[in-house]
Amino acid sequence: MTQVSNIVHLDDMSQSLLKLLEQCDPEVGRILSDEAGRQESTLELIASENHVSGAVMHAMGSWMTNKYAEGYPGKRYYGGCEFHDSIEDLARDRAKELFGCGYANVQPHSGANANVAAFMAMCKPGDRILSLPIKSGGHLSHGLKPNFSGTFYDIVEYDLDPETERLDYDAIRAIARETKPRMIICGYSAYPRTIDFEAFRSIADEVDAVLMADIAHIAGLVASGVHPSPFPHAHVVTTTTHKTLRGPRGGLVLTDDEEVAKLIDRKVFPGSQGGPLMHVIAAKAIAFGEAMQPSFVEYSKQVVANAVALAQGLVERGYRLCTGGTENHLMLVDLRPRDAELTGADAERWLESAGIITNKNGIPNDPRPPMVTSGLRLGTSALTSRGFDESAMGHVAELLDQVMGSQGDPKICSDVREQVRGMCSRFPLPH
Ligand SMILES: *Cc1c(COP(=O)(O)O)cnc(C)c1O
Fold first, then answer.
1. Is 12 part of a structural domain of the chain?
2. Whose CA is nearest to atom 10 of ligand 1?
3. Mean pLDDT of the chain
4. Are 202 and 91 in a shared domain?
5. Mind listing the pLDDT tens digit for each residue in 320-343?
6. Are residues 336 and 197 in the same domain?
7. Are residue 254 and residue 314 in the same domain, yes or no?
8. 371-395 CB burial, b ≥16 within 10 A, e <16
9. Ligand 1 center to residue 362 CA distance, Å?
10. Nearest residue by C-alpha to atom 15 in ligand 1
11. pLDDT tens digits, one per residue of 359-409
12. Cis preceding-peptide flag for 270 (omega within 30 of 0)
């Protein structure tokens, strides 16, 4: 028997899977069971992660994985696609309704792949693109040298205001005027504040550029109206489906422009992908359906309220938050005011030993290298999915500080580990 026994809350289908694996592949079964146990018994604070529903999870392990469906509904390169057409149409229709736009491509395998298609649709190789660099909270697919984006395009950068650590729209406008980019990208991986898409559009219009909004992190907040929508401002919108949106791991491209939509479809397939992951598209349809429920609006509001509560708990204990706080699901914690010697790398490692999962993250103008850093990026999407409220987040802030304040003292870490297990059993994973 695999270690199902120490995982308290496992739904029937998950139990069946582990039983099946126990017979046909115990080696894999053990690893999956260990991972289920890890997720059940640790606090997930990585801002880009979440816990999906049982329906989303199990749809990915369904019949839809067996089929090639290259092409689009009604225009496939393989026979037998009747129900694949139905599921992709449903996913597209729900995505359009959820985000209030005219066109959706649900095939990108990931957020980075959605960006490949958007770049290829809107720009020619060598075209100039204006974006925020990764060191300031951008994403590697927005122009990092070794990435496709930095390899095939002429990347110019804007940066955050060094004082406020926020977007400075006047400065971005000045750089856009000076550099005349073909495309401007907004939307980030580590920016805790609201994005003014309208301001970005006015900058783009002024220099006759295309505006791309990559809402990978905030898509769930956008879908529920907790963050302003990039529509009608952005020409093209890309996102992941697995962060605040709480769907399967995957990508999505949205637009309101019919011409852009045609280009995007061509650049996803055959431009940059082969057969779509239809099992994931089925799970996307389910996740979009879940995100249309009133309960998802409540969930998203709670995600933000929890972020504010966690932020406050950390500030009270001597940490500094970049930009002074948060308005979304994430925060960037500057560790130095609490302890000048404390690094993101040490904090991440110590916290993991206490059952708290985080990631080190550079802060704006971080003097330490990317593998060390002076910051932690924390997000509340995953804990909110298991029912954490503001008061539980206050407790999490306390636990974070016990570990970091003790410099990872093994006795304290194992004590916190037990408290974490207690919290996890009070807030089981969603099914
Ligand atoms: C996470 C993220 C992506 C990439 O998503 P993957 O699915 O990991 O490829 C793209 N853009 C931004 C802003 C992100 O935060």
1. no
2. 111
3. 96
4. yes
5. 999 999 999 999 999 999 999 999
6. no
7. no
8. eebbbbbbbbbbbbbbebeeebbeb
9. 17
10. 189
11. 999 999 999 999 999 999 999 999 999 999 999 999 999 999 999 999 999
12. yes
**243 in catalytic set:** yes
Per-residue tokens: 158: 């804007």
Residue of 11, 30, 68, 128 with catalytic role:
68
Distance CA 416, CA 90 (A): 45
Residues 304-333, mean pLDDT to the nearest whole number: 98
Pocket (CB within 6 angstroms of ligand 1): 48, 110-112, 115, 139, 141, 187-189, 214, 216-217, 240, 251
In this prediction, residue 3 carries a pLDDT of: 47
pLDDT at 2 over 60: no
Backbone angles phi, psi at 288, to 5 degrees: -65, -40
Residue 243 and residue 103 in one domain: yes
Residue pLDDT, tens place only, 20-41: 999 999 999 999 999 999 999 9
Q: How far is the CA of 6 from the centre of ligand 1 (A)?
A: 33
CA distances from 136 to 74, 147, 166, 187, 371 (A): 43, 17, 10, 12, 15
What is the extent of the structural domain holding 233? 63-291
Distance 112 CA to ligand 1 centre (A): 6
pTM of the model: 0.97
Same-domain check for residues 259 and 335: no
Point out the domain boundary residue: 291, 321, 346.
291
Number of domains present in the structure of the chain:
2
What CATH code is carried by the domain that includes residue 331?
3.90.1150.10
Residue 9's pLDDT is 76
In a domain, 163, yes or no: yes
